[in-house]
Design a protein that fits this description.
The chain is an all-alpha fold. The protein is built from 4 helices and no strands. It has a single domain, classed as Tetracycline Repressor, domain 2 (Orthogonal Bundle). It comes from marine sediment metagenome. This is NADAR domain-containing protein.
């Protein structure tokens, strides 16, 4: 998933700008009621999910700011 996010946010400047505009806000993949009750990638509609997607996007945001995207991508590829 992280490799897909790296591709999205490094190849599309508009997406990168929106991501960076979030500052240091905590990002949550909201899987609200009536939608996919995903407790792994999202908040599970109860705020008790793992929110792995939100955490991955925040990790990428940090890497973009610190100009460390190559290091993050290399780390991901080691686990393929």
């Amino acid at each position: 998933m992280l490799l897909a996010l790296i591709a999205k946010f490094t190849q599309h400047e508009d997406c990168k700008a929106v991501l960076l505009a979030t500052g240091d806000k905590y990002l949550v993949e909201d899987t609200g009621k009536g939608r996919n009750d995903d407790h792994i990638w999202g908040d599970g509609s109860t705020d008790k999910g793992k929110n792995l997607l939100g955490k991955a996007i925040m990790e990428l945001r940090k890497a973009i700011r610190e100009k460390d995207v190559d290091k993050l991508e290399k780390r991901c590829r080691l686990h393929l």
